[in-house]
Amino acid sequence: MENVATDENWKTCFSQLAPGLVLFARQWARSPADAEDIVQEAFVRFWRKQHDIANRGLLYAAVRSIALDFLRRDGRRARRESTAASETDQTVQPMFEIEDESQRALVAALDLLPNEQREVLVMKIWNDLTFAEIASALEISQNTAASRYRYALATLKKNLAPV
Q1: How far apart are CA 120 and CA 51, in angstroms?
Q2: pLDDT tens digits, residue range 63-119?
Q3: Residue 26 forms part of a structural domain
Q4: 73 and 105 housed in the same domain
Q5: How far is CA 150 from CA 4, 35, 105, 144, 161, in A?
Q6: Residue 34: CB partners within 8 Å, gap ≥ 6?
Q7: Residue 57 belongs to a domain with what CATH number?
Q8: Which one, out of 5, 28, 38, 62, has a CA that is 20 to 30 A from the CA of 20?
């Protein structure tokens, strides 16, 4: 393992990629803090396995996997608590800082997209991943990733068109 990255490379990589990864993780997380925890855990696992820090697709796959595990674990815990307390489920929706009506419309349009399209869109636009990296992270073909991206853009265009 002569090609192991230095601690400084990891710090730089984390500072550059973490904001986009947190945005990606927010699709599944109940709060911004949960999304940050998911990203931190992904980086720690990635570092421990001494993966190449340049492999962004694998890093996004790790974030997605941990987020889905977190959802399942959180869901089981919520069911146990609900049964014990006989209270209704109190799911917290992720809150975005919305500054104006156009941002509110964009968030609403994004919420209408199927998860498969939304995650590709977030990875492509806000995190600047290639279709090859997206395909690797989601374990789909590059053509499927590109198709989901096109469908998402078409749906957004239709939903955001002036009436």
Answers
A1: 23
A2: 999 998 888 887 776 666 666 665 444 444 445 555 678 778 888 888 889 989 999
A3: yes
A4: no
A5: 37, 26, 20, 10, 16
A6: 25, 70
A7: 1.10.1740
A8: 5
- Condensed to tens digits (0 to 9), the pLDDT of residues 52-61 reads 877 888 889 9
Closest listed residue to residue 139, CA positions, set 112, 116, 110: 116
Q: pTM for this one?
A: 0.54
6 and 83 both lie in a single domain: yes
Residue 151 has pLDDT above 90, yes or no: yes
| Domain hosting residue 108, numbered range | 99-163
Number of neighbours of residue 131 by Cβ within 10 angstroms = 20
Neighbours of 18 (CB within 10 A): 16
> Within this chain, do residues 116 and 60 fall inside the same structural domain, yes or no?
no
